[in-house]
Amino acid sequence: MQKKQELYSGKAKSVFATDNEDYVVLSFRDDTSAFDGEKVEQLNRKGMVNNKFNAFIMQYLADKGIPTHFEALLNDTESLVKNMKMVPVECVVRNVASGSLVRRLGVEDGLELNPPVFEFFLKNDALHDPMINEYHIETFGWAKAEDISKMKELTFKVNEHLQKLFADAGMILVDYKLEFGLFKGEIYLGDEFSPDGCRLWDAETRKKLDKDRFRQGLGGVIEAYEEVAQRIGVKL
Ligand code: CDP
Predict the structure, then answer these.
(1) Residue ID of nearest Cα to ligand 1 atom 1
(2) Among 33, 46, 164, 236, who pairs with 11 as Cys (CB 3.0-4.6 Å)?
(3) Best substitution site from 95, 107, 175 to test ligand 1's pocket, by max atoms within 8 Å of Cβ?
C-alpha cells in the first residue's frame, strides 16, 4: 500500500490517499485541541498513544461483531482504514452525567444515568456542534433513517462492550463520542476511540484519565492516557 497525497487535515488527525481508492491512511498527530479548536497544544507521544489505543479498541470491537473502518496498524502514528463518506453527526452515550449535560440541564456532575442517555450532535465547529435529533438528520439529508437507527444501535452495543472492558480494568466509562461513515453503502464505525473522545474515571478515586485533564489544565494528560492503555493491555 503506497501512501499518496494528503486529502484532509483535521484538528488531531490527517488523512492521506493510497494507491487503492478504497483505503486511506489515518495519521495521528500530537496536536491536541479543545473548545472547538480554541485551545490547541502539542502533546508529546499523543499521536502514537492514540493510534495504538484506537487500533486496540477497533480490533476489540470488530471481534465483538461491530463493523469498523479499521484495517491495519501501519506504524507508530498511522493506521490504514476504509475510505468512507463520513456522516457529519456525533453519537454520544452517557453513563454518568458530566460535561455539557451538566452545563445544559444543571444536573449533578457524577450522577449515574440509568438508562444511559443518547445524544446526537452536528459536527460543525463554527456552530459549536449543536445538539440535533433524528428529524434534523433525516430532513437535512445528513443520513437516511435506516442508517440513523444503525448508528444508534451500534453506539449502544459499543457501550456494552467497552463499559465492561474498562470496568474490568478499574475504570468507569462516563461518556464517549462515536462517528460513523458509509463504505459501499453500509454503515461502519469510523474516526477513533481514544481518551480524546471519551471520559474515563478511576473507579475508586474518580481521578480523570481522559481529555478533561487537558480541557481543565490538570496536567499529566499523556501519562493518564498511557495509564489507561497499560491497564487494558494496549502495547505502546
Ligand atoms: O466535552 P464537552 O463537555 O464539551 O461535551 P460533552 O457533550 O459533554 O461530550 C460528551 C463526550 O463526547 C465526551 O467524552 C467528549 O470527550 C466527547 N466529545 C468529543 O469527543 N468530541 C466532541 N466534539 C464533543 C464531545
Answers:
(1) 99
(2) 33
(3) 175
Q: What is each CA distance from 154 to 151, 188, 189, in whole angstroms?
A: 5, 9, 8
Measuring CA to CA, which residue among 18, 15, 14 is closest to residue 4?
18
The residue whose C-alpha atom lies closest to atom 24 belonging to ligand 1 is 177
CA dihedral 164, 170, 175, 177 (to 10 degrees): -70
Task: Tell me the per-residue pLDDT of 3-39, one tens digit each, with 9 for 90 and over.
Answer: 999 999 999 999 999 999 999 999 999 999 999 899 9
Hey, whose CA ends up nearest to atom 14 of ligand 1?
198
pTM of model > 0.70: yes
In the chain, the domains with their CATH numbers are 3-82 (3.30.200.20), 85-220 (3.30.470.20)
pLDDT tens-digit map of 34-63: 998 999 999 999 999 999 999 999 999 999
Q: 28: Cβ below 6 Å to ligand 1? A: no
Q: What separation in Å is there between the alpha carbon of 208 and the centre of ligand 1?
A: 14
